[in-house]
Amino acid sequence: MKEDKNIFDKLANKWWFFLILIIIFFIPSFSTKPIVNPQEISLLIIEVLKNSLILNFPVIFPFIKIIMILFIIGIIIFKNKISRLFILFLALLFLIVAIFQNMAFTVSYGFSILTGNIIIQIISSLFLFYEFIINKNDFAYNKQFIWKYWVIPFALFAFWMPMDKNAQPDFNFLYLFNNESLLTYCMLTPVVLSIFSISFPNINRAVLRALSYIGFLYGVTNMLTWFVFNNEMWWLGVLHIPLFAISIYTFVLSFIKINHDLTAHNKA
Fold first, then answer.
1. Starting from the edge strand earliest in sequence, which strands make up the sheet with 103-106, in order?
2. CA atoms in the 13 A half-sphere facing the CB of 153
């Protein structure tokens, strides 16, 4: 019998949905001081991200990282017993990042909002809330090929985000626990996608596909920005390689059909 699909499943299977995501991605930003020419748009984006509201709360940086580490350990040990709580945490975290990473009081442009970023990242959060409601992910599937774990060092690199305040390489071990990486969309996403990819194919494909595609949009944009158009800040490009690589990988995965598909009815 054919399984009924809800709006999120249907959207993730429509080509025009991904076209809409591209359009949203390029929605103009808002600032209280007018932008004089198009070249200033990239400067506005950089200034907002460097001064985003979320950076005003460094006290929460280590707590978010510790919570994520505990959830990852919990998923390994308890698997589906805490999976819904984990997904709820991710949905709320993506929502917080969407709002507070993309707003800032800047010197050059006044109060500014990266409108397209907020909308498209809220869409990511909505897909995760959808998974929280229907609970299709199955983290109890243990038999995996060794090659599937290639994502772990990339995810760890994103989690670490070894960079100083001047966007230069800084491999301070403490950054594993006390920087803002998990409160930035481009570092959070590869960490989440890597967790999902290891549990594939027992993963909600609609969520995997949507998050992967949005991650790819940010990944390719950052590759061009930091390796081509603004290569004096090349280290930012290196930091976005996990997002770019893992997003492509998981987007392709979301279309692969395997016999051992979702087995939600066998969940613990």
1. 30-31, 110-113, 103-106
2. 2
